[in-house]
Amino acid sequence: xxxxxxxxxxxxxxxxxxxxxxxxxxxxxxxxxxxxxxxxxxxxxxxxxxxxxxxxxxxxxxxxxxxxxxxxxxxxxxxxxxxxxxxxxxxxxxxxxxxxxxxxxxxxxxxxxxxxxxxxxxxxxxxxxxxxxxxxxxxxxxxxxxxxxxxxxxxxxxxxxxxxxxxxxxxxxxxxxxxxxxxxxxxxxxxxxxxxxxxxxxxxxxxxxxxxxxxxxxxxxxxxxxxxxxxxxxxxxxxxxxxxxxxxxxxxxxxxxxxxxxxxxxxxxxxxxxxxxxxxxxxxxxxxxxxxxxxxxxxxxxxxxx
Length: 306
Ligand SMILES: Cc1cc2nc3c(=O)[nH]c(=O)nc-3n(C[C@H](O)[C@H](O)[C@H](O)COP(=O)(O)O)c2cc1C
Description:
By secondary structure, this protein is of the alpha/beta class. Helix content is 32%, strand content 18%. It has one domain (8-299): TIM Barrel, CATH 3.20.20.70. The protein binds flavin mononucleotide.
């Protein structure tokens, strides 16, 4: 491993390296722990939780696209209590940071979940206000500044000392407007981007490929959108950013960091290669060393715009 300090800070939480796995693409870690120790990762954003268990949407709910996938999983999960009883104790066996990801139907639901999760001792709470695949809550909160602020305020009020990171939607005209509202409401960090709404149609049946008609696009196709949005948000607010969207190589992660991210998350790339986060970490270290940096954190915000 090159001689580069890989440690980064995300809203007061120290990550041993800047590579986290993205919510909804890593489950609660069990399956992936057969491939490598989860302690290799900077952190784990656990699968999105709701107050009560959810079955998610009907199938088909995942479809391939050029350079990405469309999904409409719809937050299938066992509920926050089951995570605290089973998922969290498992993740705690590893020396990595645990970030719980939550979605609510109302601000109150976000508040209840924050209280439970902060009592349970997660390292950070990622507040998802950007899921394009659920009717209630989800995207509605992420596209309206005043609602985004209300959810953030409620989450902060109930999260105790646990930092609150708000996950932003790319499905807006001006992402900085939402970022500013969330910063004003007291968020500790931002994560972006969630998936971009999309659609695929089977031309023979004339049916949409996904049972919900539309879904969220992720994977390499969205990387340039993510880089652009991280760069815009970095200039608009002072909050640290967890950047994601289409990262599968160290160079992708370096682009997001140069645009302003303090750390990055790997999602869809995991489906093709469970080891992708480790390759991203090692690639980042090599890039930092090649560029003569002593710490990978020196990349953050280092872009030199024309
Ligand atoms: C199958 C699938 C499930 C997802 N579930 C969640 C979720 O539960 N909560 C959330 O905040 N984001 C969820 N996401 C979004 C990812 O965390 C990430 O923001 C997005 O996929 C972009 O990163 P990527 O291109 O590396 O996958 C999901 C994405 C996928 C592909």
